[in-house]
Design brief:
Elements: E1 5-10, H1 18-26, H2 29-34, E2 35-41, H3 43-52, E3 61-63, E4 75-78, H4 93-111, E5 117-120, H5 125-129, H6 136-143, E6 150-154, E7 159-164, H7 172-175, H8 178-194, E8 202-206, H9 219-234, E9 238-243, H10 245-250, E10 259-264, H11 265-276, E11 281-285, E12 291-293, H12 311-335, H13 349-365
Parallel strand pairs: 1-2, 1-5, 2-4, 3-4, 5-12, 7-10, 8-9, 8-10
Antiparallel strand pairs: 6-7, 6-11, 11-12
């Protein structure tokens, strides 16, 4: 009981299905057995949605700060105005403001280690635009003054990162540079090792243009992507590609890799969701704090109908907890490293890397 994590949950958009998803999730007894959930939102809005959804035998314990949390119940910290207006099915300036107030409040407490991880319920896209950001990852990048943050989609079948996110298609080619690809590969490799305890990650890199055949077609593939991959290998990263996206996904090549790096968001996200959206969630990699979010949309068109699926919220909560445990394990391993043995007098990491890369290529060609 004492070792359970304090898991913060932001309430998302009060006009969408976020409260429905949260209520359904927290109504499960096993959630309080696994963690101490602390919702950042409004008790008044929660009570409203409980009535709208006709949910019985569910209550939230109102607290002022995480240390007051009841370990046997779901808790809520009131961090928005009690007079917040609920306008079902619409993203409004008021609902955007309420979602960002909750997010900022929760992040403040996450940074002070009052909670261990944070999971976001769906909020409207305009809420980030008002913060001069196109996405959660970009907003968090600015908050933590880093250009390294990246959305990492995670499911049981695949992990996927992106070189560019939420960019206009005409701008994508200008952002596909050796430097940007290498930075994302290094971030992805570090994340897989530290946050997912994968000791020698294999990363597939997609091409930019259609019908790419091992980097032999397309100016960007030959002049930018292939050199970036080669440079990544010199850094000890097992990156392979570039692959044509259509063949890569249709032939299930992703099953041979620990993660995929797509050149732009739409190139990878449609295939990712089609392959395994049920077990999926998003983790923002490259930050000092642990934040996850559901891939579920705010669902303005179905709000109040009690048909929202909380599986995405559950995935996001479990993902954040898993990353926390993995980071702790890595800290312990660094304190007590295993002795290193030279397995062959003429071997080094790059030699082993080349052999493994060739082995993967053989598997893909078979």
């Amino acid at each position: 009981m004492e070792n359970r994590l304090n898991v913060g949950i932001t309430h998302g958009d009060v006009n969408g299905i976020s409260y429905e998803l949260i209520i359904k999730l927290l109504a499960e007894n096993r959630i309080c057995e696994l963690c101490v959930p602390i919702l950042y939102g409004s008790p008044k809005v929660a009570a409203y949605y409980r009535k709208v959804l006709n949910v019985e035998n569910f209550n939230l314990n109102t607290i002022r700060e995480p240390r007051e949390a009841n370990g046997k119940r779901s808790n809520i910290i009131n961090c928005v105005d009690d007079n917040v207006k609920v306008d079902l099915g619409k993203e409004t300036p008021d609902s955007d403001q309420a979602s960002m107030i909750a997010l900022k409040y929760a992040l403040d407490q996450l940074e002070r280690n009052e909670i261990d991880v944070l999971t976001l319920a769906p909020q409207g896209p305009e809420s980030f635009l008002k913060e001069e950001a196109n996405s959660l990852a970009e907003y968090l990048s600015k908050r933590y003054n880093t250009s390294e943050a990246m959305s990492l989609f995670v499911s049981e079948k695949m992990k996927m990162g992106f070189v560019t996110e939420y960019s206009k298609l005409r701008d994508v080619p200008h952002q596909i540079t050796r430097k940007n690809i290498l930075k994302k590969l290094m971030l992805l490799d570090d994340t897989l090792r530290i946050d997912f305890t994968i000791s020698k990650p294999k990363i597939a890199v997609l091409g930019l243009n259609p019908q790419v055949n091992c980097g032999q077609n397309g100016d960007e593939e030959v002049n930018i992507i292939v050199p970036a991959i080669e440079q990544a290998r010199q850094e000890g990263i097992m990156a392979i590609g570039p692959f044509s996206a259509d063949r890569f996904f249709s032939e299930k090549m992703y099953e041979k890799f620990d993660a995929v790096l797509a050149m732009y968001y739409d190139q990878g996200v449609a295939a990712f969701k089609a392959i395994d959206e049920e077990s999926a969630a998003c983790y923002v990699a490259g930050l000092p704090v642990i934040c996850s979010t559901s891939l579920t949309e705010p669902g303005y068109d179905i709000v109040g109908q009690n048909i929202g699926d909380e599986q995405g919220m559950r995935n996001a909560l479990y993902l954040a907890m898993d990353v926390f445990v993995h980071r702790e394990q890595n800290i312990e391993l660094q304190k007590n490293p295993l002795p290193h043995y030279d397995i062959a007098s003429n071997s080094n990491e790059s030699d082993l890397n080349v052999e493994q890369i060739e082995g993967v290529r053989v598997e893909l060609d078979d």
